[in-house]
Amino acid sequence: MRRRVFSSLVPGLAALGCAPQRADAPRSPGSPPAGAPRGPDDEAWWSQIAGLYPPLDFINLENGFFTRAAAPVMDAHRRARDAINREGARYMRLSLLPALEAVRTRLAALLHTVPEQVALLRNTTEAMNLVLQGLPWQPGDELLGSDQDYPTNVEIEDTLVRRRGVVLRRARVPEAPASDAEVVDAFVRELGPRTRAALVTHVIHLSGQVLPVAAICAALRERGVLAIVDGAHALGQLEVDPAGLSADVYAASLHKWLGAPLGNGVLWLRREHIAAIEPLFADTSKASDDIRRFEHVGTRPAHDVVAVDDAIALHEHIGVAAKRARLLWLRERWVDAVASLPGVRLRCPRAQPRASAIATVAVEGMAPAALAERLWQQHRIYTVAIEHPVIQGVRVSVHPSTPVAHVDAIAQALASSSRRGPGA
Ligand SMILES: Cc1ncc(COP(=O)(O)O)c(C=O)c1O
């Protein structure tokens, strides 16, 4: 059903180049390489992945904000947009619903769950607002956050304190934990008598640290605390199975590591929580246990959602394990090159399973913004400065399309910045 409906909107996956190909099959421009990479350093294979993205005249090492969508995804996006503009209201009334259900089904499979537990939203921010503001808080109830929560989550937390009388508690996430137990303890230690829910970030935006979410959520659920996971940077980088992680709620953005067009997010809920959360946008037409009641935001650019199917197809063609291996290999190449340079301080975990594509680095005597500016002005390398009470530095995030030359360039640029010092 899904495939039939979808293929009536846009060409099938084979036409998009995402179907498995024989190694000797001719590739059309914009189609991914055949087969699987021989490893994270199979440059011939990965350079074909890089070829799916428009060329840039600078070095982009800020892939944490969002990642550009690849050519097959943007082709599908354009085709869906054209169909919408050709057919108008008829498309929206007849074709859109089955197309959305097709995406829901595919996302559910990616999350090892069923479509009834998946809401198609615009981003993690929307999902977090829906859940945290929609819970039945009583004044004096406690919410546990952490000292490294993403700023939009901090804004939601502050809003709950101001509007709903929620008491906020904060775990201090260790920067270089020696064990999972140390991280679990950082959360459990801060639970209070009225802690109803805790917000746990799967991959921290400041340092790329991957938290032991399964162990944290299990400890929270054992204590009757709702485990709400922000997976903005996890989905697409890691295998994500919210139920397997013991989460109650799992939210993620699809325009980050999954490579979907901008404006796509997902919310997974345990079935028993669907009716307990009050939607922010009124929807009285659906049953209280229908997760679709969280999607009621009026008319929106439907082609954005339709093309998620193609982003998942490309992601699955690469394979999450191969993708993660490539990301870690690229990251380790530059991190290892700068780790022992005098004046260079890494502000990210080195060892598995804590590391991700994101890593943060500081140069002694140089403010993060000054370092980011120097990287840009002198080396045409785009990064982002992190000025946070806990972690300061320049955040460098690689992508499967990042060429080796780009990670070598950041290593050399950091070496020259550390040699020259702040005044140079
Ligand atoms: C950890 C984390 N959570 C949430 C968000 C918000 O994502 P979005 O802007 O897609 O809603 C981000 C964005 O970078 C993030 O890093």
Spatial order of strands in the largest sheet: 2-8-7-6-5-3-4
Instruction: Look at the structure and name the CATH superfamily of the largest domain.
Output: Type I PLP-dependent aspartate aminotransferase-like (Major domain)
| Helix/strand class | alpha/beta
Beta percentage is 5-15%
- Cα-to-Cα separation, first versus last residue: 63 Å
Shape: globular
Order of helices and strands: HHHEHHEHEHEHEHEEEHHHHEEHEEEH
The level 1 CATH classification of the largest domain is Alpha Beta
List segments where confidence is low: pLDDT < 50 over at least 5 consecutive residues.
1-26
> How many separate domains make up the residues?
2
Bound molecules: pyridoxal-5'-phosphate
Task: Give a written overview of the molecule.
The protein has 424 residues and is an alpha/beta fold. It folds into two domains: 218 residues, Aspartate Aminotransferase, domain 2; 100 residues, Aspartate Aminotransferase, domain 1, CATH 3.90.1150.10. The strands form three sheets. A seven-stranded mixed beta sheet has the order 2-8-7-6-5-3-4, with helices on both faces. A four-stranded antiparallel beta sheet has the order 9-10-13-12, covered by helices on one side. Strand 12 and strand 13 form a beta hairpin. It starts with a helix and ends with a helix. The N terminus is likely disordered. It binds pyridoxal-5'-phosphate. The site of pyridoxal-5'-phosphate has 11 residues, from helix 6.
